[in-house]
Amino acid sequence: MSLIRTGLQRLATVFSGSNGGILSRFLTNVVPAQQQSINTQKEVIETCNRMIAQKPSRNFAIIHLLGKQWRVSDGDLLVVEGYWPPSIGDQIKLEKVLLAATKDFSLIGRPLVQPDLVTVTATVISKGLSHTRVHFKKKRRKQFMRINFQRAQQTMLRINSVEIADKINARPKNEQ
């Protein structure tokens, strides 16, 4: 009995040792410790602000519009299906931005990006009906056939611009 007790005590010291247990000992022996420069939050934000000021590449955004998510950038055309009140020629601001990014970095919202940080503007180009969809029902050997036609309302949008504000994490103007 005493042999079992001493064996269990040895196992307990191995697994709950001061160095973090057997797993951490194994990992530290296999992988050499490397000194990596860890970017602080301020450094990352400063780098993103510099990239925004230089405007090196096209911005894109993922927006939420009429129950769907769309990836948009400058000059894109969207065909949105369903009833939507804006009329032709209206300039609108799309406010539900889920993500905004460039080739070099991304701003991810939780669930939305701050409204004053990203501006997505669009123009309504046309409104109309979609192509005719045919719904055909038939039951074999029962002399039953139905044909229904359906056309949905569509709105075509042109994305004018996707702009990221000049300063990320800056205080609002009314607080300064």
UniProtKB/TrEMBL annotation:
Coiled-coil regions listed in the entry: none
GO molecular function: structural constituent of ribosome
Family matches, as Pfam families: Ribosomal_L21p
Keywords tagged on the record: Ribonucleoprotein, Ribosomal protein
Cellular component GO terms held in the UniProt record: mitochondrial large ribosomal subunit
InterPro entries: bL21-like, bL21-like_sf
Source organism, top-level taxon: Eukaryota
Family: Belongs to the bacterial ribosomal protein bL21 family.
Protein name per Swiss-Prot or TrEMBL: Large ribosomal subunit protein bL21m
Species per Swiss-Prot/TrEMBL record: Papilio machaon
